[in-house]
Amino acid sequence: AMYSIILPTYNERDNLPLLVWMIDKYLGAANIQYEIVIVDDGSPDGTQEAAKQLAKIYSEDRIVLRPRPRKLGLGTAYLHGLKHAKGDHVILMDADLSHHPKFIPQMVAKMRSGSFDIVTGSRYEGEGCGVYGWDLRRKVISRGANFLAQLLLRPGVSDLTGSFRLYKREVLQRLVDSCTSKGYVFQMEMMVRARHLGYSIGEVPITFVDRMFYGDSKLGGSEIVQYLKGLLTLFATT
User: Fold this and answer.
1) Are 229 and 180 in contact (CB under 8 A)?
2) Nearest to residue 54, comparing CAs of 65, 39, 44, 43?
3) Smallest Cα–Cα separation from 134: which of 193, 73, 218?
4) Taking the complete model, does pTM exceed 0.90, yes or no?
5) Where are the domains of the chain?
6) Which CATH architecture fits 3-237?
7) InterPro entries in the record, alphabetically (predicted)?
8) Residue 52 pLDDT more than 70?
């Protein structure tokens, strides 16, 4: 099996070399065939130059840069990455070092053992999972957002808003094609649609290190409002 890791990036020049090194280390040790498809949305900080250097080091089969001219949203970044991905399995993760590549072999093993369509990294279930570097407000918001979604949508998955996931390629293609939301709500809609389409979902406990160690934290007030709007729309339409 071949695994395509789709990485949407925006100003990740400092993180990218370390992330690629870690992916290579952990997937290499587990003997997992992989490629990294970098979908950069016109970063001004030189992320694309860093990606080109990495392609020279790790080979252009491994590091595939497929940039776009400007910021066009997460859902469309995944679609764009999918077009260029060669793998029959696809991993979606963040490029900001909040997702540790050491969990990928566990996700792969979980999918193989349970023949799941999707395996999601969960910050809330199981031993050894959790969130580091979040203040109480962020934890309350995240837990609250997740709790609300659980209550309204009953998805049967403990972590709806996480973005560290492994999909069978055709499953992801079908989900991305049917999803309408952008940004933060997108991850949640994917899970809700997956449940409606009858796909099986496995979970692997992960630790999540917050972005605020490195850059700007992603959840502002306007995003919380967007999240609630998106949640209610989803609830109304599913």
Assistant:
1) no
2) 65
3) 218
4) no
5) 3-237
6) Alpha-Beta Complex (3.90)
7) DPM1-like (IPR039528), Glyco_trans_2-like (IPR001173), Nucleotide-diphossugar_trans (IPR029044)
8) yes
